[in-house]
Prior knowledge:
Two copies of one chain form a homodimer. Chain A is of the alpha/beta class.
Amino acid sequence: MIKAVFFDLDDTLIDTTKLAEIARRKAIEGMIRAGMPVDFETAYQELLELINEYGSNFPYHFDYLLRRLDLPYEPKWVAAGVINYHNTKIAHLETVKGAKRTLLRLKEMGLKLGVITDGNPIKQWEKILRTEIDDYFDDVLISDFVGVKKPHRKIFEKGLNRFGVRPEEAVMVGDRLYSDIYGAKQVGMKTVWFKYGKYASAELEYLEYADFVIQSLEDVVGIIRGIESEEKARSDKEVHAD
Amino acid sequence: MIKAVFFDLDDTLIDTTKLAEIARRKAIEGMIRAGMPVDFETAYQELLELINEYGSNFPYHFDYLLRRLDLPYEPKWVAAGVINYHNTKIAHLETVKGAKRTLLRLKEMGLKLGVITDGNPIKQWEKILRTEIDDYFDDVLISDFVGVKKPHRKIFEKGLNRFGVRPEEAVMVGDRLYSDIYGAKQVGMKTVWFKYGKYASAELEYLEYADFVIQSLEDVVGIIRGIESEEKARSDKEVHAD
């Protein structure tokens, strides 16, 4: 019997990659509107390169962008970038298509739901609260808060312990073959790889750890029903065999 | 002849104090809604005390609030505080009553306009851009960018130099008797104290440095017209005296 389903957050429940791309474009547009003397493509490509090198949580993207473009430091341009980036992130933050419907169906089936995600706890909670999905979840585990990161088995074990369920009673759904799928499979959970977003064709060396592959989040419901009816059939058979 | 007018930003052009109060109240309300087990007044008073001790730019207000209230660290509550604080600040950021009309009148009179403000350059530019007053100004001097703070004479001298005007041709308008009025008077500028906001009855030992005291920002226009007609009358008289 499946008793619990855990979800990754970014690009599984929330459209983070798509959002970040729009927000970065809007930021560059805002900086140019504020007077930054450079064409859109040059600035945008430089920003992507910079984010690639320094990571998306680096707090000085726009400051460094000016340095890389050999422009003078002009706080007005940086402020324009920050404003447009944040406005966009707040206005466009959305759950993945079908996410809320899926969560509701799973709750109706009496399942415990959890989030297991990497990242900054405040930022991750911001996404959960802003998209108003917090009420669906019985627990939220964020790596930078619990002190262990996916794919380390401890974060998955913590999730199982909190719900008091055994690994084979739990499903992990995520977009990353390495951190979500390989990670959850290590502890014996059932795994559903959501082939979506920028990692849809990445880390394929870990594909063998995925029990199921889906391209629509709503397919999680059918998979869990399938697991349950299969288990039921098997146990019926065992009874008959006696 | 008056050729330039400089304005302070916070609580002179932009209603910062009022905004911060609303935002802090909304933050506490959001934290309680997210489950923080404490009554509004207790939490709000503790937050005010904390801000008073650590300053308003301290980045861990909500984290420290939980510690001070002997509550467990719950990132969900902190995130709820942060979201509500920012949503409010973005939605309610407004110019002081009459500010835009005043700036427009002064531009029509052919005056150069500048901002001389303390604070973080990005945050100050954010306020200027979000309230859309940037186009009124020929220059913006922010202390943490130019490296000198009000009331130091250098920041006022920089403003005068950028516009190429003499001190007696310039007016400084601000809500702080010490940093704005005493500061600008030191270099010989004309001073208009805007008796407004939380400093409306503070630093009165510097009142002698104020040439004018106003309670509505729009009075700046009349004051400058007054100075000009008085100077004109005086120079006419001097001509007659010849």
